[in-house]
Design goal:
The structure holds four protein chains of four kinds. Chain A is 36% helix and 22% strand. Chain A is of the alpha/beta class. Chain A folds into two domains: 51-118 and 292-387 and 410-432, Rossmann fold (3-Layer(aba) Sandwich); 121-287, Dimethylsulfoxide Reductase, domain 2 (3-Layer(aba) Sandwich). The radius of gyration of chain A is 23 Å and the shape is globular. Chain B is 34% helix and 21% strand. Chain B is globular, with a radius of gyration of 22 Å. Chain D is mostly beta strands. In chain D, the strands form four sheets. Chain D has a 13-stranded mixed β-sheet with strand order 5-1-6-8-9-10-11-12-14-16-19-18-17. In chain D, strands 2-7 form a two-stranded parallel sheet. Chain D has a two-stranded antiparallel ribbon with strand order 3-4. Chain D has a domain at 112-277. Classes of the chains: A alpha/beta, B alpha/beta, C alpha/beta, D mainly beta. The B-D interface holds B 72-76, 78, 331 and D 140-145.
Chain lengths: 433, 565, 129, 278
């Protein structure tokens, strides 16, 4: 039996494109329309040989297959006995599942954090001090005549961003490409820079200096230096004029700002620049959130605890302090004594000293596929792939909520993140009594 | 379900004209009944006041704007938190509480129904997710339509019936409850960084005026027979002299009152009741507004009272929040939403010593005290704009006791004290009138037949306050009043005791109310045909993904409404 | 020769991670170091040869490839992944975010040396210094 | 004076909330009472004597009490929280938020201190023999309220954002400072004897920063005012010469940044803007 499912929401990057057409035959996905290269790779490979279908527990170095209930029971016991358990990941799953993880963290008296802390965590820290002047992507499509990508390379990281929402999109007040100007600021001449009307190459780790000079130029203050961050002052003033004279400008920024020297203060400067521009014209800013539901995870953790990520429940109520309650420091200070990793691969994406501690403590990983983290885990529990084998709510990079649908059944006996977390929660509550 | 008998309380049930009589209230299976068996659990409410559960008509508790406010203010949360208990989840306060804490704190004050008054249709799925995680209270939300591109275009083309079909479809699609209008046309102009300064100024590109938008949506509200009138935050909010716009807006729909019913609800009128021409000579426009409302029958308001405390202002009025940022140079969040609306958030501190804040404080109370008919007044602080809802007991005490007001009047800015009429107003609200403005009038205005009263068949949502009505001398015992309303002796929700003396003892899930508006099939078919193409051009999401199905609400209460069209 | 190391996303890394973190495709896409063509000349290494990248935090052998996003003299780029993180800086300065971009690095030719497999990388982390 | 000594029984694995440990909280209590006090170890409430050996006497008045801690406290958070009087001495390293919201008294660290040393402090003195982490004397996220008074002296180096959002008080770093000292500063004084990683006084509104060592560059949002022969730090005159920069102009700031001329030849080019300013 063959059917085509329309308006499918893609669950890869923060674009959350919702116009995919997926053809399913006898419970298998056989074709996907409107998907970009990265999305296509997910739909083609989601059930390859690296797929985990049976829970496994490591005994003296070797993984042995166990039943779902046995794995859940053992995992719950480890987490319940821990004095400082860490729950991390949660950007590749639905807000309903993340909500369950928050409840689990509260019952355990542990820390819950998502990949935000190594992605746009610094952006949220900047917002705590400055605020943010932003909008939904449709405002850009309909109105923007100046689009800036700063330290972000969407052609690689968000392949359909330009076509669906910015320079190549068709909106109510902007019909053609020539009605819009594209500016790219980056340390390299990226694939996106090659499409730009203006490319500014900033010296590595000097974005803060450039933003500071740009703020001066926008305020009409004189910049004494003839070059800042490797950019001639005349070019800085040219960009400032462009920003002041546009009708509706938008500054998208990426990990080049959050991960380089200055981190959340680079964002301070960018948020302040865009805020100040509103005294001259209409200007907005938006972080290029990476995963399809990293934003949703922040939203649900915030409405349930008051804080967007890195929440410590050890004393029975939410406490938040990035640098104290964030995952990298908890690992490098060697403080947590057990970890539950959901839909993430920290062993591949964290610096060595953080991964070293993960290798010393019991780690439970909930993931559809083998990866570096499952290899170093104590218990591995397979899960359904959100957006393909299970549904739920996800939030686009601009905060627009969407519901992704279940397209096909997961492998036999494999449950969804939400179901797994609910099972662990019930078991932990029993242990804690 | 268990039976409960509340004995010998002084009952205040204005919708059934009960004004402090000593009587018993019987509950069975979540409903108020005539009588119960001897097995019923007895609550001895002697020397106590019994009222229907509180109904809050306007409180920003859920959705993308509120959550942006939470993320903006970790420093607000760190000083006010709730530790988890056997029954309750942990959380934080103060001015933008997390969802669990919001539900518990309302229940502790005896409130059982709260409406989120501003949700962008495109992001209402987020609002519902948060309402699902708001325990105990029943709730609903008002979709923002005052700057909607489709509505302004239908208005320009004069297609009233097709627009009514669109509004009906939209309320269904996002499971909303009433039509909300914020700074009509002004927030759309803010999409270009501009604003609208009077009722007859044209919106850029759409060439319709705020007056036309308000009248248009008022007509549609009548055509669709929606339970609540249009709920409007007028233009020029927060601008000295804006009381004129407020009265003009009321007058603009005077002729549209359908068989004598209220045709317009003006929200948080304090922020729209400024007289004077600048911050220096700011004065209260409450007397003029009250005068107009006392002379007319088509208008009702909620006051939006200011509390002297630090809080977080948040409205869909993007341009106003920008002005507030320029005044305060505080942190500022702006979040425009494609084809629909906007939002702005600025932390703010109201000080007694500040001339403007003191006048604002006076305006709110003057409105409540000068408008004669309490059925036209709803008590709100436009939480958290005027102040957190946890301060409602203070407002109740100020309304019931002149002495309570004087204690504050003597501490506010001297010039403000001189300019306000408030010091000279002696009126003191009775418990009966308090029951009207905090539950009876609100339930009636929202069209909630089973709420806000204790007649048989009503939902068993009840609040019992430790106030001995016989001995009570409100003007003196304002401290007692404040204490009693701060922590209800008992709060009963759907026939179950949920709070006792400020402690949550049970945490059931409340229902999400929404209006299932029906129009004739052929008008809907025509409308949908035309809508489909434009939808894809204006939005960045597909129409199918815009629609929220009822199961998404988990516990939903559908109110069916038949339209004229 | 002194460089500034930037780790980040690349299209192949994006597609590769979806193909499977233990797959050959992922290995080929992320165990690489992209050079500005002029820098390759001064180092006299040619595309496809292995190099060793050293920072204060470790060292890693990678395949040198010509960057398609030049010019960026003095900057080398390694896609996110286990190989990149053998040399990234865990210092977060209290922000939760380690230094993934702009790290002082040194590059030397290493024609004969082998690129570690993922398992070998993990063994190096657990056993290594 | 009376002295109370707490020695760590065994190495801390999960962090402890040590905010109970200060002369203010322990004064006037018997050893037995102190041993029975509770504190959080991870998510468990434990008795103090499960973590510490408690010896000595503390019946004295708060200001005459010395509390000495022996062991590695890098995983003990919030030591000396809201301390008002008395002396707290730590022989070893300390963890996060040492001396948070301190009002008075003296804290001495014979080792290194963690981040948020003296966060939101309003009085008292903290002396650290070794180095300190990031956010010395800074404020809580979003709160815009750093140190409001008191004094912090660090003999070694410190991390990033020393004195962030500070409005008063004194921070002295005898070693090197990380990046962004005086971030969003509103008042008070920061003295850095060693080198500074850069971006001194970013987004500052007011206050004084003095750097004797090397500062790679000055932000474009600062003006050069003049060259000063010397500068006063806490009544002590420190001879220069110093370049005096004011800013941060982006925040309409009138902060003063004194940078030693001799150790910063790379800043010489700023002198040509001096003529244009007069």
């Amino acid at each position: 039996m063959e059917k085509t499912i329309y308006n499918v929401v893609c669950t890869v990057c923060g674009c959350c494109c919702d116009d995919l057409e997926v053809k399913v035959k006898d419970g298998k996905i056989i074709d996907v329309k409107n998907a970009c290269a990265v999305s296509l790779s997910k739909f083609q490979n989601y059930s390859n040989e690296e797929r985990i279908v049976k829970p496994m527990i490591k005994e003296n170095g070797e993984f042995k297959e166990y039943s779902f209930d046995e794995a859940i029971e053992k995992a719950s016991k480890i987490l319940a006995e821990a004095e400082y358990p860490l729950i991390y990941g949660l950007s590749l799953t639905s807000t309903e599942a993340v909500g369950k993880a928050v409840e689990l963290a509260e019952v355990l008296g542990g820390v819950i954090d998502n990949t935000t802390s190594v992605c746009h965590g610094p952006s949220l820290i900047g917002v705590h001090d400055i605020g943010v002047v932003t909008c939904t992507l449709g405002e850009v499509k309909n109105r923007a005549d100046l689009i800036i990508y700063w330290a972000s390379n969407p052609v690689f990281s968000h392949p359909r961003h330009l076509a669906r929402y910015t320079v190549f999109s068709k909106g109510k007040f902007r019909k053609e490409r020539k009605e819009r100007k594209l500016v790219v600021v980056d340390v390299r001449k990226t694939a996106t820079a090659k499409l730009a009307d203006m490319f500014i190459q900033v010296a590595p780790n000097q974005d803060y200096e450039l933003l500071s000079a740009l703020r001066m130029a926008v305020k009409g203050e004189e910049i004494y230096l003839d070059e800042v961050a490797g950019v001639p002052t005349s070019k800085i003033e040219e960009l400032a004029d462009l920003m002041i004279s546009c009708e509706f400008g938008i500054l998208f920024f990426g990990l080049g700002l959050t991960m380089s020297l200055g981190k959340s203060r680079n964002i301070d400067a960018a948020l302040s620049l865009v805020r100040d521009l509103n005294e001259r014209t209409k200007f907005l800013i938006m972080p290029m959130r990476g995963h399809y539901n990293v934003t949703g995870a922040n939203e649900v953790i915030a409405w349930q605890t008051g804080y967007p990520f890195a929440v410590d429940f050890t004393q029975g109520y939410p406490r938040y302090n990035p640098g104290e309650t964030t995952t990298i420091e908890i690992l490098t200070r060697g403080e947590c004594d057990a970890a539950l990793i959901i839909g993430s691969d920290p062993a591949a994406h964290f610096p060595v000293s953080a991964v070293k501690h993960l290798m010393k403590i019991p780690v439970i990983t909930v993931d559809p596929h083998k990866n570096a983290t499952t290899l170093i885990s104590t218990i591995v529990i397979p899960t359904a792939i959100t957006g393909i084998e299970s549904g739920g709510t996800i939030y686009r990079m601009d905060g627009v909520p969407l519901e992704c649908k279940k397209l096909v059944e997961p492998p036999l006996g494999v449950k969804s993140d939400e179901e797994i977390l609910t099972e662990i929660l019930t078991n932990v509550k029993k242990f804690k009594e | 379900m268990s039976e409960i008998l509340i004995k010998n309380g002084f009952v205040f049930d204005p919708l059934n004209n009960i004004n402090g009589e000593k009587m018993d209230i019987a509950i069975k299976s979540g409903k108020i009944v005539e009588k119960v068996s001897s097995k019923a659990k007895v609550i001895d409410a002697s020397h106590m006041i019994v009222m229907p559960g509180g109904v809050d008509i306007h409180s920003h508790i859920a959705g993308s704007k509120v959550n942006s406010g939470r993320v903006l203010r970790p420093e607000d949360h760190v000083k006010d938190y709730e530790v988890k208990t056997k029954v309750t989840r942990s959380g934080v306060g103060y001015s933008v509480p997390s969802t669990f804490t919001t539900g518990y704190r309302y229940a502790k004050m005896g409130y059982t129904t709260v409406f989120e008054p501003a949700t962008p249709p495109l992001k209402t799925r987020h609002t519902h997710e948060e309402l699902r995680d708001t325990p105990i209270i029943d709730k609903g939300c008002f979709p923002l339509l005052g700057n909607n591109w489709f509505i302004m275009e239908y208005l320009k083309e004069g297609k009233l019936e097709e627009c009514a079909a669109y509004v009906s479809w939209l309320l269904n699609a996002v499971k909303g409850y009433a039509i909300k209008i914020v700074n009509p046309g002004g927030t759309e102009a803010w999409g270009w960084g501009k604003g609208i300064s009077h009722l007859d100024e044209e919106v850029p590109y759409f060439n319709v005026t705020p007056r036309e938008i308000v009248r248009w949506l008022c007509k549609i509200n009548n055509i669709l027979n929606l339970p609540h009138p249009i709920h409007i935050h007028t233009n020029n909010l927060g601008k000295p002299g804006n009381y004129v716009t407020t009265i003009e807006t009321m007058d603009a729909v005077k002729d549209l009152s359908k068989n004598g019913k209220v045709s317009i609800h003006i929200t948080h009128v304090q922020f729209n009741g400024f007289a004077g021409t600048s911050w220096l000579n700011l004065a209260s426009g409450a007397p003029e507004i009250a005068n107009y409302i006392n002379k007319n029958t088509h208008v009702e308001i909620d006051i939006g009272q200011v509390i002297f405390s630090d809080t977080t202002t948040m409205t869909a009025d993007g341009p106003f929040q920008y002005i507030l940022y320029l005044l305060s140079r505080e942190k500022w969040v702006n979040a425009d939403v494609e084809a629909e609306t906007g939002a702005g958030i600025v932390p703010f501190r109201y000080k007694k010593s500040n001339y403007v804040n003191a006048i604002q404080w006076g305006i709110g109370l003057e409105l409540a005290l000068l408008i004669k008919d309490p059925w036209k007044v709803h008590m709100t602080t436009d939480h958290p704009n005027g102040g957190p809802f946890t301060h409602y007991p203070k407002v109740i005490a100020w309304l019931m006791s002149k002495k309570a007001r004087e204690r504050i009047i003597n501490k506010i800015n001297k010039n403000a004290k001189r300019r306000l009429d408030l010091p000279g107003i002696d009126r003191e609200y009775t418990p009966y009138e308090i029951a009207i403005i905090t539950r009876a009038a609100t339930a009636k205005s929202l069209g909630l037949k089973n709420k806000g009263h204790l007649g048989t068949g009503a939902d068993a949502d009840i609040a019992i306050y430790d106030l001995d009505y016989e001995k009570l001398n409100p003007s003196e015992d304002y401290k007692l009043i404040k204490k009693a309303f701060k922590q209800a002796a008992y709060t009963i929700k759907n026939g179950e005791i949920v709070a006792k003396n400020g402690e949550i003892v049970a945490s059931p899930k409340g229902k999400i109310y929404w209006v299932n508006s029906k129009v004739s099939d052929d008008i809907q078919k025509v409308m949908l045909e035309n809508l489909k193409t434009k939808f894809e051009e204006y939005y960045t999401v597909k129409m199918e993904n815009y629609i929220i199905n009822e199961s998404y609400l988990h516990d939903s209460f559908m109110l069916n409404v038949q339209s004229e069209v | 020769m002194k460089f500034k190391l930037v780790t980040g996303r690349s299209l192949q890394q994006g597609a590769g991670k979806e193909a499977g973190k233990l797959s050959k495709e992922y290995f080929n896409n992320v165990a690489v170091c992209e050079f500005d063509p002029d820098d390759m000349e001064t180092l006299n290494i040619s595309p496809g040869e292995n190099v060793v990248v050293k920072t204060k935090f470790g060292e890693v052998v990678l395949k040198a490839v010509k960057s398609m996003q030049a010019p960026h003299k003095g900057i080398i780029f390694i896609p996110y992944g286990p190989w990149a993180n053998l040399v990234t800086d865990p210092e977060t300065h209290g922000s939760g975010m380690p230094n993934f971009k702009g790290i002082e690095a040194e590059v030397l030719p290493a024609k004969e040396e082998k690129i570690l497999t993922l398992k070998e990388v993990l063994e190096k982390i657990s056993g290594g210094k | 004076m009376s002295e109370l000594t707490l020695t760590l029984k065994k190495e801390l694995i999960v962090p402890i909330d040590a905010s109970i440990i200060s002369p203010t909280n322990l004064a006037g209590k018997t050893v037995g009472e102190i041993e029975n006090l509770e504190l959080w170890r991870g998510n468990r409430k434990v008795k103090l004597n499960e973590v510490f050996h408690v010896e000595g006497k503390s019946e004295d008045e708060e200001e005459n009490l010395i509390v000495r801690l022996i062991g590695d406290f890098s995983k003990a958070r919030g030591l000396g929280f809201k301390m008002k009087k008395g002396t707290l001495i730590i022989d070893g390293n300390t963890g996060l938020r040492l001396g948070e919201k301190m009002k008075g008294g003296l804290i001495k660290v014979n080792g290194n201190a963690g981040s948020w040393l003296g966060s939101e402090m309003s009085g008292g003195t903290i002396e650290v023999e070794g180095g300190a982490g990031d956010f010395v004397g800074a404020g809580y996220r979003g709160g815009k309220e750093g140190m409001r008074g008191g004094k912090i002296v660090i003999k070694g180096k410190c991390g990033a954002e020393a004195g962030a959002w500070m409005s008063n008080g004194v921070i002295k770093i005898y070693g090197d400072s990380g990046i962004f000292p005086g971030m969003h500063m509103k008042g008070g004084t920061i003295f850095i004897k060693g080198n500074c990683e850069g971006r001194a006084g970013a987004e500052m509104k007011d206050g004084k920063i003095v750097i004797l060592g090397h500062l790679p560059s000055v932000l474009p949002s600062f003006d050069i005012e003049e060259i000063r022969a010397s500068v006063k730090v806490e009544e002590e005159k420190i001879s220069g010469p110093f370049y005096l920069f004011t800013g941060d102009i982006n925040e309409e700031g009138i902060g003063k940044l004194y940078v030693s001329v001799d150790s910063n030849s790379q800043l010489k080019f700023w002198e040509k803007f001096l003529e244009s300013v007069i």
